[in-house]
Amino acid sequence: MTTATDRLSAASRAAIASPDCYIDGRWETGRGPATTKLDPSTGAPLGEFHTADREQVERAIAAARRSFDSGVWSRRSPAERSEVMFRLLDLLREDYELLTEVVVADVGTPISFARPMQLDGALANFEWFARAAATGPDGWFEKGLPVDMEGLPSASSLIRQPAGAVGAITAYNFPFTIAAWKLGGALAAGCSVVLLPSPRAALSTVALFRTIEKLDLPEGVVNLVLGDEEAGRLLSTDPAVDLVTFTGSAAVGAKVMGQAAPSLKKVVLELGGKSANLLLPGVDFAGIISPVIDRLVTNAGQRCGATSRILVQREELDDFRREAERYFGSLKVGDPWEEDTKVGALIDERHRESVRAYVDRALAEGAEVLAGSTEENPLPGFYLNPLLLIGLDNGSEFAQEEQFGPVGLVIPYDTVDEAVSIANDSRYGLNANVCGETLPAIEVARRINAGTVTINGGGRIRPDAPWGGYGQSGVGREAGNEGFREFFEIKHVQWPL
User: In what order do the strands lie in the sheet with 488-496?
Assistant: First the structure.
C-alpha cells in the first residue's frame, strides 16, 4: 500500500516513528489504543501512534511535579534558562526543513503557507520567550514598591515565581506555534510541563519533541503524552498540576474549566472565534480582496481567528461580488506540496463532514452562493472547496457557530454603526479586521469587542503581542508579556522600617 510517508525524507519519517510518549526524560510507547493517522491531502496512512494509558499520564504528571519541586529547572537563574532556550532555537532552525515536511503531511497545510505561518511563527515565539526568560515579563522578576509611610512605615517588594507544574493541551491547526506559546512561556518562567497534543496532529508534536530532546533538559521538566479526552481530564483534575493551559473549542474549554474547578487550579483558555471582517464604505475591493479572503481560507479555514463574517455595505454588494468571484476563481485548491497551492485539505473526514453539514443547513435555510462552489472536490483526501454564502442574517447558525473551514458568510449593512453592532453580536470576541482608510478604520476598531483587530489585513501575529479574546473566546492570554505573566504567581514581601 502507498503511504503518505513516501513523500517524506528519511529524517522526517524517523522523527514521527514510535515510541511516541516522552515521560521523565525517556521515550516509551503508549500503552493505550493505537491510532492510524491519515494524511489529510491523500487519505493515505501517515503513521501510527499509541495513546498513553492512565498510569503513564499520571507518571508524567508526577515527573513534572517532582522536577519542579526539586528546583532542577525552576531554581536555575533566568540567564541560564534563557541560554538553554536559545540553544533550543538553534536546534529548531537546524530541523526547519524536517519539521516543515512533517507539518505539511500531518496537518495538510500548503508548504508555501507552512514555512511562514507554521514554522517561522513558532520560531519567532520561541525566540521571544528565550529573550524574556532573562528579563521576566515587563522586564522584571522582582521590583520594589515605594515606601509606605501611612500607619506603620514599611517597604515592599514584588516577586514573580514560576506557577509550578503545567498541563498544556494544544490544538491541531498550528501545532508548533501553540506549543511555542505554552512550552516557551512555561520553560522561560521556570515551570515544568506535561504536553498533550490534539490526536489530530500528534505526529507534529512528536517530531517537535525529538528536537527538544536534544537539549538534554533535566528529567521530568518536559513530558509528552498522547491521548484523548480522558488524558485531558487527568491533566485538568490532578491536584499536582498547578496550571492548565488549553487551546481548542469553547465546548471543550468549558469542560476543562469545570474539571479544574474542584482543585481551584489556574486555567488559561484560548478558544474559538466567529470573527468579523468589516469593509467600510468606499473601500477599494480590488486592493483588499486578497487579505480579506486569505484570512478566511488559508490553512483551509482552520484558524480560530478566521474572519468568516464579511460585512459589506448593501449598496456595494455587486462590486464586492465581482471581486470575490474573480479571486475565488484564482484560488488553487490541491496538493500541499506544490508551491502555488493556496488551499489544502481539512484535517480529517469527520471534520469535513461537519463543515459540509453546516453548509447544507445554511443552504436549506435560504442561503445562496456568492462566490466559490458547493461541488464536491474530486481530489483524494479531505478537501472542501472554498465558499462564500449570502442571504442569512447574523442570528443564523452559520453566522454564530464556528465552522473551522474555508467557508464564510457575507452580511450586508446600511450604516457603520449597524456594522459595528453586527460585528459585536457574537458570543466570541477573538479577532476582527477593518478595511478602509487607516484613521477612520482605527476608530472603528476601537469599538469592536475583540482581543485583536487588524486594519487592512494588519501583519503577522506578533510574538510580543497577546493572543486571546473576549467572551467565549477564552480566559487569559497567550504570547507576549500578557501571555508570559500567566506562568507566574506573584508574591508581595513587606517589612517594617
Answer: 142-148, 154-162, 488-496
